[in-house]
Amino acid sequence: MAGSGYTDLREKLKSMMPYRDGHKGGGGGGLPREPPEPPYDRKRRHQEDSGSEPSDYEEQKEEEEARKVKSGIRQLRLFSAEECAKIEARIDDVVSRAEKGLYKEHTVDRAPLRNKYFFGEGYTYGSQLQRRGPGQERLYPRGEVDAIPEWVHDLVIRKLVEHRVIPEGFVNSAVINDYQPGGCIVSHVDPIHIFERPIVSVSFFSDSALCFGCKFQFKPIRVSEPVLFLPVKRGSVTVLSGYAADEITHCIRPQDIKERRAVIILRKTRLDAPRLETKSLSSSVLPPGYNSDRLSGSNRDQILKPKRSHRKADPDAAHRPRILEMDKEENRRSVLLPKHRRRSNFSSENYWRRSYEYTEDCDEEEEDGSPARKTVEHGFPSQPSALAYDPVLRVMAIGTKAGAVKLYGAPGVELTGLHKETATVTQLHFLPGQGWLLSLLDDNTLHLWEVCQKEGCSHLEETRSFGLPGRPGSGSANCSPGITRVTVVLPVSVGAVVCLGTEGGAVYFLTLPTLTLLEDKTLFPDEILQSVPDDYRCGKALGPVESIQEHPRDGSQLLIGYSRGLVVLWEQSTRTVQHLFLGNQQLESLAWEQSGKSIVSSHSDGGYMVWAVSGTGQRTQQPVMSTIPYGPFPCKAISKILWRTCESGNPFIIFSGGMPRASYGDRHCVTVLQGQSLATLDFTSRVIDFFTVQSAEVPEGGFENPRALVVLVEEELVAIDLQTPGWPTIPAPYLAPLHSSAITCSCHVSNVPLKLWERIVSVGEQQSPRQSSAAWPIDGGKNLAQEPTQRGLLLTGHEDGTVRFWDASGVSLKPLYKLGTASIFQTDCEHNDSLNQAGEEEWPPFRKVGCFDPYSDDPRLGVQKIALCKYTAKMVVAGTAGQVLVMELSDEKSEHAVSVATVDLLQDREGFTWKGHDRLAPRNGPLPFAPGFQPSVLVQCVPPAAVTAVTLHSEWNLVAFGTSHGFGLFDYYRRNPVLARCTLHPNDSLAMEGPLSRVKSLKKSLRQSFRRIRKSRVSGKKRLNASSPSSKVQEANAQLAEQAGPPEVEMTPVQRRIEPRSADDSLSGVVRCLYFADTFLRDAAHHGPTMWAGTNSGSVFAYALEVPSQEKFSERAVEAVLGKEIQLMHRAPVVAIAVLDGRGNPLPEPYEVSRDLAKAPDMQGSHSMLISSEEQFKVFTLPKVSAKTKFKLTAHEGCRVRKVALVSLASAGSEERLENCLACLTNLGDIHIFTVPSLRPQVHYGCIRKEDISGIASCVFTKHGQGFYLISPSEFERFSLSARNVTEPLCRLEVTRLQDTSCLSNSLMATPKLPQANGTHVPRSPEGQHSPSDSDRSPEEHPAAFSPGPLDSPNSSLENPLDTTGDITVEEVKDFLASSEEAERNLRNASEDETRPTGILIK
């Protein structure tokens, strides 16, 4: 079978088709000659008949395709056996209803051994098509199929949304495929013109497999070997996107369906998907007598007639010849849409961030590289779901919907853990002071986490888990899982016991830390009902346990509250009811008063009651006080309430919810009440939980005196100072909501001078005078990390026009300063940062707290690019509407007018009309500015397109900026433009529409796509001239490649062919990078200021600048002369440009040399220019611009460059041993490091998931080998490429346990950084731990530290010769500065230079 191209019935097939042998033998025997076979079939048949093993090239090609398929597959194990059984019962109900004819005509589609049930949307396919072929499928008219059943939403879709597999509202089409044994579905691609990506499927009833790249043949049915065989387990979720969904077919083979199997396919239809009209439905689609009333669903056929024959299941059906009338498309590609439109636009930028798909079925590491070292997460946890506080250790814990658990104490004290199960953390509870944390997941399992000590540092480890069994005495068939679903968890301080309240009303007790069930202590509702009066019982159940609270003075007594309203004081030792509180309102929560003499209960009607606890009576029917704070109108429930005593007299009563339902039911509020003082804290996102910070031990008769209130909402954490009048907020040193407005760009500044740092901190403190000066209340643990050796700033630009400055020096990302730009422009709303305080007469007295505000006043305000000079405190902020602001830091407030200059980038070019958004109108006259960065000049680009590149050179007083139309150079000292250059191609019509335009036409994009296809085909045919030397060389190389070489000859790695890009591609004029350098451009003897610009079409423009000296800035203007114009042959977008000095080092930043902060560059030797395109890196000599060396990344790795940076990596042993390297991030999420200028590959990291488009786009490198990228809208992940510069949490928590237990888990990690909730963290292997003897090696000498890829990788070669085969090299160099004699000499040199291609011209 190994040599066979088919897996099924080969011997039987040969016996049934004996003519094949004769045909292979040369066609003898008088047998008729078969028609010519396609090359692909001939190749496979040759392999099958000869029995020869496939060549290395074919194996490599198959492995490469399998890797591409894997890149588009995600698998998750989300549904338990119990959930599967419930869903499978619903599927059986669907089958039953279909048999009874209860569904619409086109809901049910029958085929041999496979039935389909369409819900929401149905479409024609296979034999139903009026015209066969890809792209001919059509959606049925609306209403032709039944709606998606509610159970699909409740049991399937909701779980996928909760685990962020799909977003809310994504699914509008659900299809149930019901396979019998031997059933199959032939190879196909889900219609690209009908369905968005991804395609989500959930499997039930049995295990099966999904195969990719198979070919079906019929009479008898045979299936070829798949490119990839993917096992699909019962209850698993499979997500297809990218290559797996669009570029290769998938199928279900008959031999893989051994038992009945059903799959629910969830998809979203495209808005522009073609749809049949009623009058166009053929007779095969609409039966005779069909009328339009059926479209609305008003009438239904009494009996549903099957469209196709239905046979009983036969296990041997896979081995019987038969014809399937199904969709038989093969390698389907939509002819309606170009390739870039086929890609999914389902990228809410951060939706595919979290990797929740960790399963045993699909958990593979990168084959060609190990992961980069991720060190810490900055920002606010994505989708928090639970909160807990330990008053003894003074630390808090936050759980997330991704199953992550994060502990926070003092700044720098952070511990992280991740549950093995992919489930939402619903509750967290500390055992105070003992370092134990209990987590309850939504799958009804309880987990114990333990703070362990390893090598002097604390780590968080999961040690035990527990799931409640069914209630004893009740059969599993009759016992609903909800009876034992845990609703309340309470660790009891006495006896190391934890109480679990359930929906069934029972209370279970577990021992700690073993989590062993104490069955003899279980408290069932029947035992409580014996003490309840008959008139209160009334035959009604008590309902779920809503709250359990331990008596503050007697740990043996528990206060248990039931949903019906009954509250019981239970004595554990005697198992008796001490007191009954007969409430009649639905209970939400309970809280003790510190002395234990009173309790407070909150209820669903928005009120709370105070009850007296006394020994005089066993039953209390009426509370001491009952009130609805925001009544008398109906109010929402008070979900949680706290009672905290205060020495000043009146206690604090703090509760969440309770708002008037009609007027403010949509508000998210926490109310703080003390005597006559009332504050309604109004948040912009849902309240998750809250707690108060007070002394851990309160003596009898003492007071709690809460210091602070900490509230966790969905998008931020807010602390309120309860000891300062007015209850102001306390600034948080961490967990800042980075996404208070959506992040649009980021920038990192290393080694910030102390003076600038202090000035930024000072102006930031002046921005928030209303904040409390109290210390951060959560201050437990000890930070063991060393103080940062340098100060690092992280700047983030936001959608609302703000730039935020963050202290990124250490583990905690602390906000320093916020810069706003909206006040400079005229917009529709007022721009002030003041909190909208409620008026004195307004009720409720709302008070806005928190800074999360996701709404932008004007999308044109969005910040696109930032540049900061750390030596002169000058800054450039560029935005979406072409605005470029030049700003300078001022310590004093001022009032001045902002100069406005306009730069026309079209240069009066005719035929171009801007159809996008208008420019932002600046405010007139003097404007007030607070201390901080204040604008001096506003440069407005015309047309007002988004700025795509910006750079600042403060020593020359120049700023360069680029858009999709061209680039400009501006002298902000003299406040006049120096240069404007249009980069548009005549066919760049899309560049004139802008990102906010609504005039884009599908018809226009289709027309342009067809034109590009035709042009590429024509140009491909014309590219090779048969008489040209290059074509002959390529023909000879092709012939040599086809010849079989000796086995001992080592073949060079196969390089992919890189297709040249069309010159008239849309948006080819986008300026991708700008760069200033003092280098040699005119000749090899004189250097001077230059400016370089790279575009999307592979063009590089070099300008020689005449910059006057410092003394003559006011007298002479800067001049710019075009020096060289370079065009890359394959027109790959230029990502970055850099100039290297004579020693191969990057040129220093402005003012670094003059201030003795960097070595002076080598101006004696020849300089080199490094051009990084999306496809390769290439080094040229200057000023001649001749190719020196290169590395073709796309040809080797099949990826594209997304981010590039020159980084300085220091040795772990000596900081003075530095090596300059080129760090590159690709579209596959990998990081490659190369030496410069030799471009030798050093290491290859797997860093970001390839599906994480927004994470890759947001990545920013630091100059010392670290980096940041967004793993969610609110979190930056920090990683390190350097063995020396590592920023990670190192901390210690001192715990005191009742039992001396070491960590119960044997899987301690080497660092406190455990696998994170985004699934990208991989534990460090033992090989990654380095001995001290290796610490002083340089990065190049330390392969273990950098985890290089396999030695047989194309990147492992030590030498990288300049090979021009398939090269992305220079097509044309125009030198506008050389004299005619020098040009002739250069031409002679070019003709003699064998390494240069013949297409290089120097004029």
TrEMBL record:
Residues 627-728 form the Lethal giant larvae homologue domain. Residues 1025-1037, 1353-1367 have a biased composition (Polar residues). Keywords: Cytoplasm, Exocytosis, Membrane, Phosphoprotein, Repeat, WD repeat. WD repeats lie at residues 793-807. Residues 1082-1318 form the Lethal giant larvae (Lgl)-like C-terminal domain. Its cofactor is Fe(2+). Residues 1-69, 281-330, 1016-1047, 1309-1403 are annotated as: Disordered. It is found in: Cytoplasm; Endomembrane system. This is Lethal(2) giant larvae protein 1.
